[in-house]
Design brief:
With 91 residues, the chain is of the alpha/beta class. Helix content is 47%, strand content 16%. The longest helix has 13 residues, at 7-19. The protein is globular.
């Protein structure tokens, strides 16, 4: 699952997943990639973590409080600049 507001960025992330042999699907997934700052982000992270699904959250480096909050919910949270590397490391 990839949740990102920017369609271009979402496509780029989907390409990284595909290159690693993965597939972007809906809620039944092996990894949730979620952009911070969107609607219901905390609830979505919590739901995924409770299901045992790893969450890779990403957001702006100038909003460290959002990254910390995601980590507190059980996600791995990285700034935008580190997202592609973190996603490749998952696979």
């Amino acid at each position: 699952m990839v949740v990102a507001r920017d369609l271009f960025f979402r496509s780029k992330l989907a390409a990284v997943v595909a290159a690693a042999g993965g597939e972007v699907v809906g809620d039944k997934c092996d990894l949730a990639v979620i952009e911070l700052g969107g609607e219901d982000v905390e609830a979505r992270i919590t739901a995924m973590v409770e299901q045992g699904i790893p969450v890779l959250a990403f957001g702006s480096h100038v909003k460290p409080e959002a990254l910390r909050a995601a980590r507190a919910l059980g996600a791995t949270a990285v700034p935008n600049s580190e997202l592609e590397k973190a996603l490749r490391e998952f696979f």
